[in-house]
Amino acid sequence: MASTFFLIAIGFVIGLGGWALFLWAVRSGQFDDAEAPKYRMLNDDDEQLHSLPAGKTRKSAKR
Questions:
Q1: Per-residue confidence in pLDDT tens, the chain, 63 aa
Q2: Distance separating alpha carbons of residues 11 and 31, to the nearest angstrom
Q3: Would you give the DSSP letter of residue 31?
Q4: Could you report how far apart the first and last alpha carbons of the chain are, in Å?
């Protein structure tokens, strides 16, 4: 019987930990906009190439 109470207590602690992590993720903005990253990914390369000085390539700019 003692092991049953111990397992219930462990489950309760794990459940509270998961709930706390979920609340932290919501408050830090992890679920704000799920659609924007897939569109932002398509535009990143164009902005980086236009901001490079003339004559520089992407490989030489990383060095």
A1: 999 999 999 999 999 999 999 999 999 988 888 788 778 777 766 555 556 566 555 555 555
A2: 26
A3: T
A4: 64
User: Do 58 and 49 touch, CB atoms closer than 8 A?
Assistant: yes
Coil, helix or strand at residue 53: coil
Instruction: Find all residues with CB under 8 Å of 58, minimum gap 6, and list them.
Output: 48, 49, 52
Residue 35, token pair as written in the block: 């659609």
25's CB contacts (< 8 A; 6+ apart) are 31
| Cα–Cα distance list, 38 to 33, 35, 41 (Å) | 10, 6, 5
